[in-house]
Here is the input.
Amino acid sequence: MSQFQESEQISMIRSSLKSFIEKEMPRDLVKRWDRENYFPRDVHDKLVEMGCMGLTVAEAYGGTGKDITATAVVIEELCSRSMSVGCGYIQSSCYAGLNLGEVASEKQKESLLPRVAGEGLMLSYGLSEPDVGADLASVKSSAVRNGDTLIVNGSKRFCSGAAISDYIYTLVRTGPTDQKYKNLSIILIPPTSPGVLLEPQESMGLKGAGTYDVSFSDVEIPVDSIVGGEEGWNKGWEKLAGPGLDIEKVEVSAMALGIARAAVDDAWAYSQERIQFGKPICSFQSIRHMLAEAKTKLAACRLMTYQAAFLIDQNLPATVETSMAKLFVSETAREIVLKCQEVMGAYGYVGDFDMERYVRDILVMPILGGSSAIQKNNICNRLKLPK
Ligand SMILES: Cc1cc2nc3c(=O)[nH]c(=O)nc-3n(C[C@H](O)[C@H](O)[C@H](O)COP(=O)(O)OP(=O)(O)OC[C@H]3O[C@@H](n4cnc5c(N)ncnc54)[C@H](O)[C@@H]3O)c2cc1C
Here is the structure.
């Protein structure tokens, strides 16, 4: 069997997710969640019961063992219907399950990972700041030690899912700025801590989990909130830029793939129902060609995404391939969705159909998780192209 054929186990996960989506996430309900910017915690809890969160957690901590291909399948399927549920899943299985499994202290793993697999514990990412986007090592939010306590001050932007998360996975400066990549730490801050203020940010897509401006004013948290424990102090950059980053690129690729697939399926079906000039529009060559190109590009996106996941699962080098997947899939998925919108004409632009939501959601994919320009930099740098 090649890596491009789904194993029996992966096919089973995919088919149970499809049944789950039809039962628990019908289109009308999903439309309402999007309109009301609502996160359906009950659906998240049912995914926990199905064992989906355990796909990133080692058996020793209550999961079924790290399986990035299976995780990408769950993300693709959920995001083909709802970003609200899909993003909540990522906050649990990826932000929490993968990061904590990779870089937390043994004590943190023992206390938090069973809660990821068994309760769907969620993290949100507090990385970006008002003046800090791609250049994350320049964060200004800070934490200082005061005995057994940390005092945190500063502000974060675009903290998606902050209000529904158990902890904000917060990158802070914890020492002098003389060396940019040193003196950074990651700390776990409950969003309900005194001194934490969340303010929702308006965004055109990714409704549900919501994205927030977060400010910290003299927030006091215990020192054991440092990710990695005491040894994690000033080691934040290594923890952030480790293998977790490769996996994040696969997560975004799988999200984009799910949205693009839904757009192609809807446009394909619509083209057979919409009659103009006495014929279904799928009989016009212009429509046929758009759909043929969309299907072809979608197939390429699928191969790029699952090839990258396969390399990670095989513990093979994947930094270049994950950047290539993130770059190609997010950009191509955006092209696919915009073409599918064109197939549906005016009905691709209005709220009666899901296409307008796919358009809003797909536009952010080349921006999130390292922009396309950053992925191009990564590819050339990793392949050692001289500057
Ligand atoms: C809906 C949404 C949800 C988000 N969720 C989160 C979240 O949960 N947590 C979080 O921390 N952040 C989140 N973000 C922020 C996201 O990760 C940032 O948008 C991203 O890191 C890029 O930062 P920026 O948009 O400020 O762009 P900037 O870094 O300011 O870049 C602006 C432009 O310059 C280009 N550029 C920048 N540096 C370089 C370079 N070295 N070489 C070439 N080109 C360059 C970029 O590609 C881009 O085109 C979210 C953003 C959105 C829109």
Remarks:
- Residues 8-121 form a domain with the Butyryl-Coa Dehydrogenase, subunit A; domain 1 fold (CATH 1.10.540.10).
- The first helix runs from residue 8 to 24.
- The chain has a mean pLDDT of 96.
- Residues 124-125, 127-128, 133-134, 158-160, 203, 206, 211, 364, 367-368, 371, 373-374, 377 surround flavin-adenine dinucleotide (CB under 6 Å).
